[in-house]
Amino acid sequence: MAYKAPEGKGYADVAAHFRTLIKNGELAPGDALPSVAEIRDQFGVAAKTVSRALAVLKSEGLVTSRGALGTIVEKSPIVITGADRLKRMETNGRRYAPGETSSGHQVIWRSVYDTEVCTALDLEPGDEAVIRIRVFRQDDKPTSVGVSVYPPHTIAAVPELADDVRMVKQFDKLYTERTGRQVVKGQRLAQARQASQDELNALEIDAPPHSAVAVLVTAVTFHDDDQALGYWEDVYAPGARVPIPE
Fold first, then answer.
1. pTM for the whole structure
2. What CATH number is associated with residue 28?
3. Which residues neighbour 102 within 8 Å (Cβ) at sequence distance 6 or greater?
């Protein structure tokens, strides 16, 4: 694979370049990074700068040294959010990272009572919405549960969201094409909370009854100029490494 990047960067820039390739799935677990000499030539930096960049990536658990094999991407290094999947698809068209799949797909109309979701989508408790659920897996091991909730006015513009099939194009692109309105992603928030039994089942966690299992949850709301269009939530398996935007 050819790696292109601006010349004359510092170690943080070199580390950021390869971190992005790993996050976007362009470098898969087990892939080797270029040699130190190749990275030096690519970025126009000293060997010490390359060493510092690789040390940063190692400290983040993204890569490891494998002797004669050089520096290798670690297995299942990070789990990204649904919002980051949108960005990845825009960058390279990849829905999944290498070795990643999904299962447990569900599409349901349901009355919504969750306070956070109702507030985000400006719904009254009991209003109906379409909920799409899937479990993301790395090497067949559950890593996160993705839940997306869409109010009726979004479904009116993108009726495919209510069909129990995999979307061939992201909802924000379809919405913009059909309405002429730009979709904006809001601030992504993260919190730790106790997992529900449904989430434990989806993540295949066998916990004793009534035990508390903490999970990290990220959430983001999508809007146009007038109204909220969708609420996305990702629930991560304990131990998952999730990149946090700067």
1. 0.77
2. 1.10.10.10
3. 96, 134, 135, 136, 137, 146
In residues, how long is the chain? 246
| Same domain, residue pair 87 and 184 | yes
Give the total number of structural domains in the chain.
2
Amino acid at 115: T
pLDDT by residue for the chain (246 residues), tens digit each? 334 444 446 899 999 999 888 887 788 888 899 999 999 999 999 999 999 999 999 988 889 988 777 899 987 667 777 777 777 777 767 777 777 889 999 999 999 999 999 999 999 999 999 999 999 998 889 999 999 999 999 999 999 999 998 888 889 999 999 999 999 999 989 999 999 999 999 999 998 877 889 999 999 999 999 999 999 999 999 988 887 765
Token pair, residue 72, equals: 């290798």
Residue 223 host element (H or E)? strand 214-223
Which of 32, 45, 51 has its CA nearest to residue 5? 45
Residue 6, domain member (yes or no): no
Q: Which of 203, 245, 246, 239 is nearest to 83 (CA)?
A: 245
Which CATH number fits the domain that encloses residue 200?
A: 3.40.1410.10
**By residue range, what is the domain housing residue 104?**
82-236
Q: Which residue has the tokens 């809007």?
A: 223
